[in-house]
Design a protein that fits this description.
Blueprint (H helix, E strand, L loop, with lengths): L2 H13 L4 H13 L1 H17 L9 H18 L4
Helix pairs in contact: 1-3, 1-4, 2-3
The structure holds zinc ion (ZN).
Zinc ion binds next to helix 1 and helix 3.
Length: 81
């Protein structure tokens, strides 16, 4: 699991729909990657605010926009190709 993969799977992870193998991989990555942990924390808070703390899935359009925004941010921050 690398940073890009984490970003790609992030919304599934936060929705709790990621399969357990992937989730463990992702959590292992989070335990040693501050950048991704920050992204996950920020995104989780954003979702909680957006959903009024209700554990409901994100609407598809919101999910896509969030995803795109995160990928853009990742690309800008990425030091390697
Ligand atoms: Zn990372």
């Amino acid at each position: 699991m690398n940073c890009k993969k984490v970003i790609l799977e992030l919304t599934s992870y936060l929705d709790g729909v990621l399969d357990s193998t992937m989730r463990i991989d992702l959590e292992q990555h989070l335990s040693r990657c501050t950048d991704c942990r920050l992204v996950v924390d920020t995104t989780r808070k954003t979702i909680q605010i957006f959903c009024n703390s209700e554990p409901v899935p994100l609407p598809e359009d919101v999910r896509k926009r969030l995803h795109t925004a995160l990928l853009e941010r990742f690309r800008r921050n990425a030091k390697t190709t």
